[in-house]
Amino acid sequence: MEVVATKNAPAAIGPYVQGMILNNVFYSSGQIPLTPAGEFVDGDITEQTNQVFENLKAVLKEAGTSLEKVVKTTVFIADMNDFVAMNEVYATHFGEHKPARTTVEVARLPKDAKVEIEVIAVID
């Protein structure tokens, strides 16, 4: 197993890492809307989802892969009423690529974020 860590995404805020690689597969930890400096993006679902994707892109790049190689995402959303807006931002980041996805509404997320996303991606 190989730990993935980059200063271009926020550091873990607990006893975990940004991601792990095993057998040419990258598994990210969930990303919330923190800047790489650790500042919380206290915006609407659109702003928060965009920050989450910037974080995901950074850890994917550090792992040697990209959004185009993501095979599965899990989206945790604090309010399913934000689903349409989150989904629009999600679609702009993935474009034509459509990985498998699970989306669930949760009672609460770290730092009271509106969204958290984790990914699994292959590494060529």
Key features of this structure:
globular, alpha+beta, 124 residues, single chain
Largest sheet: 6 strands, mixed
Round the mean pLDDT to the nearest integer and report it.
97
Oligomeric composition of the shown chains: single chain
Main β-sheet, spatial strand arrangement: 1-2-3-6-4-5
Helix content: 25-40%
Strand content is 25-35%
Structural class: alpha+beta
Shape: globular
H/E topology pattern: EEEHEHEE
DSSP, total strands: 6
Which radius of gyration do the C-alpha atoms yield?
A: 13 Å
What is the count of helical runs? 2
Q: State the end-to-end CA separation.
A: 16 Å
Query: Can you tell me the residue ranges where pLDDT is under 50 for at least 5 consecutive residues?
Result: none
Structure in words:
With 124 residues, the chain is of the alpha+beta class. 25% of the residues lie in helices and 27% in strands. The protein has two helices and six strands, in the order E-E-E-H-E-H-E-E. It has helices at residues 45-63, 83-94, and strands at residues 2-4, 19-22, 25-28, 70-77, 100-105, 115-122. It has a six-stranded mixed beta sheet with strand order 1-2-3-6-4-5, covered by helices on one side. Helix 2 links the parallel strand 4 (70-77) and strand 5 (100-105). The model has no long low-confidence stretch (mean pLDDT 97).
